[in-house]
């Protein structure tokens, strides 16, 4: 408003820009997005392109190393699921994932000689670099070759969750 002396001082004030006070929103969105990405991307599990070939007898389970003692770090994983892709051409073949506590194997028909305890992988902790090893057992009701691809391990590691390939793939020759 104008007076005889000129415009009033309040009318000459420059207001702050309204958009400046909303700048915090994109910063928060970026931080939430980075946190969500981090939660779903834990460090990779050891994985190799190697193929392990072994021979066993019909009905005789063979236990094979999948993941563990060669890892030089220290990680504690809570295994929630292990998928073992098996070639469907072989009927009567069964593959299971296990955890060998305080021991390790390359291949054997009796892991109890090398492990303090053998427990199912699903729902149990795996201490990589702490003496544990993930192993698989393969048994078939008929002769032939069982082809097992890399394991797909679903796990939690602290706040992080992930599903990743792990270990080698396998060719198990089953003979009478």
Give the overall average pLDDT.
86
Q: Give the low-confidence spans.
A: none
In terms of DSSP E residues, the strand content is: over 45%
The biggest beta sheet, please? 6 strands, mixed
Number of strands: 13
- Give the total of domains: 1
Kindly report how far apart the N and C termini lie: 104 Å
Cα shape = elongated
Radius of gyration using CA atoms only? 29 Å
The structure class reads mainly beta
Total helices: the number is 1
Topology pattern, helix = H, strand = E? EEHEEEEEEEEEEE
Characterize the structure shown:
With 176 residues, the chain is mostly beta strands. It contains 1 helix and 13 strands; from the N terminus they run ββαβββββββββββ. Strands 3, 5, 9, 11, 12 and 13 form a 6-stranded mixed beta sheet that branches. Strands 7-4-10-6-8 form a 5-stranded antiparallel beta sheet, with no helix packed on it. The protein has a two-stranded antiparallel sheet with strand order 1-2. Strand 1 and strand 2 (6-7) form a beta hairpin. It is elongated, with a radius of gyration of 29 Å. The protein starts with a strand and ends with a strand. The mean pLDDT is 86.
């Amino acid at each position: 408003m104008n007076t005889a002396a000129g415009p009033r001082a309040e009318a000459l004030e420059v207001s702050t820009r309204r958009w400046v006070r909303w700048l915090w929103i994109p910063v928060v969105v970026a931080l939430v997005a980075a946190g969500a990405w981090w939660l779903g991307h834990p460090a990779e599990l050891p994985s190799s392109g190697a193929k392990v070939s072994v021979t066993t007898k019909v009905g005789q389970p063979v236990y094979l190393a999948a993941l563990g003692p060669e890892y030089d770090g220290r990680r504690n994983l809570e295994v929630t699921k292990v998928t073992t892709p098996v070639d469907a051409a072989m009927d009567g073949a069964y593959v299971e994932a296990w955890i060998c506590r305080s021991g390790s194997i390359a291949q054997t028909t009796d892991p109890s000689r090398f492990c303090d305890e053998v427990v199912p992988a699903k729902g149990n902790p795996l201490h990589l670099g702490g003496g544990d090893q993930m192993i698989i057992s393969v048994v078939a009701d008929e002769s032939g070759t069982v082809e097992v691809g890399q394991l797909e391990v679903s796990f939690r590691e602290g706040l992080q969750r992930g599903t990743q390939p792990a270990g080698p793939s396998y060719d198990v020759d089953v003979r009478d």
